[in-house]
Design goal:
Layout (H helix, E strand, L loop, with lengths): L3 H22 L3 H4 L5 H9 L2 H10 L15 H7 L3 H9 L15 H6 L6 H8 L20 H6 L3 H9 L14 H7 L3 H10 L9 E2 L5 E2 L1 H5 L9 H15 L11 H6 L2 H4 L3
Antiparallel strand pairs: 1-2
Length: about 270
């Protein structure tokens, strides 16, 4: 398991690199399909369902074509660019939702699960055979999330619920030691962490991370990083989690207060938060 500070630094770097890559690629996805799939890519971009139907009927092999630069399929591209009509049409025509992009190594479902605004693409992909337990491959781009549930755990509760209902492995651990519950806790997603722990009983019995000094971090240590207003709903939910964790042998009030918070908040707050 990665040290805590190193992990946060790595996460920030990954986010920055991902944003840069997305900016570089935004608006140029169609041109990545220069060649046999260009017309179909243009129809996907324009969400012209009739044109998509005609072009796929004429050349069925283009339905799962992967452009050579990043290995994107048109389905993955449509999900990434929020082209809902095209996503639906491609799936209805039989597009394979389980093809992994060759640069990031992720599936269309992992990409869909990162969406903060909607779970519609997760729902569509699952309804058309997307595998909720298909994990990303180790590739040069290295996706930020190794499984669809991990991506959803840092993004959107509804997507988490859809994936679990479809059979996603609640306690899957990535080769790097990440789990969905760890990502929800680290992202301070109170609603998602509460759902995974209190309702689905995700495994929190083992250390989730290790510090530079070798101290194992449990779920309560992540809660110690949550600095909500004491009269807020998030604080109330945090304390519900703390009570549950105490019943599991993890005493929130015995967990050390992070040193960086001691410099930022008054003693009175830290005694209660």
């Amino acid at each position: 398991m990665k040290p805590r500070r190193y992990y946060f630094m790595l996460l920030l770097i990954l986010l920055a690199n991902t944003c840069l890559a997305q900016r570089q690629r935004l608006g140029h996805d169609v041109h990545l399909f220069d060649g046999p799939a260009l017309r179909l890519a243009q129809a996907v971009q324009q969400e012209s369902r009739e044109a998509i139907q005609k072009l796929v009927k004429a050349r069925p092999g283009l339905l799962n074509y992967q452009e050579p630069t990043y290995g994107m399929t048109l389905l993955y591209c449509a999900v990434r660019n929020s082209k809902g009509g095209s996503v639906e049409e491609l799936l209805e025509l039989g597009a394979n939702p389980n093809i992994l992009e060759t640069y990031s190594g992720e599936s269309a479902l992992i990409r869909a699960a990162t969406n903060f605004e909607t779970s519609a693409y997760v729902h569509l992909l699952l309804a058309h055979g997307a595998n909720p337990n298909l994990t990303a491959k180790d590739t040069p781009g290295k996706t930020q999330y190794h499984s669809p549930l991990m991506a959803a755990a840092a993004s959107r509760l509804e997507s988490v619920q859809l994936l679990l209902a479809a059979g996603a492995d609640l306690n899957y651990t990535s080769p790097g030691g990440d789990t969905a519950v760890m990502l929800a806790l680290m992202s301070q997603r109170v609603d998602i962490a509460g759902f995974l722990i209190l309702e689905k009983h995700a495994d929190i019995s083992k250390p989730l991370m290790r510090t530079f000094k070798g101290r194992n971090l449990m779920a309560v240590d992540f809660l110690r990083d949550w600095t909500f207003d004491l009269d807020s709903e998030n604080y109330r939910k945090k304390m519900l989690l703390a009570a549950y964790l105490k019943a599991q042998g993890q005493d929130y009030w015995q967990a050390p207060i992070p040193k960086h918070l001691q410099k930022l908040y008054p003693k009175g707050y830290l005694e209660k938060y």
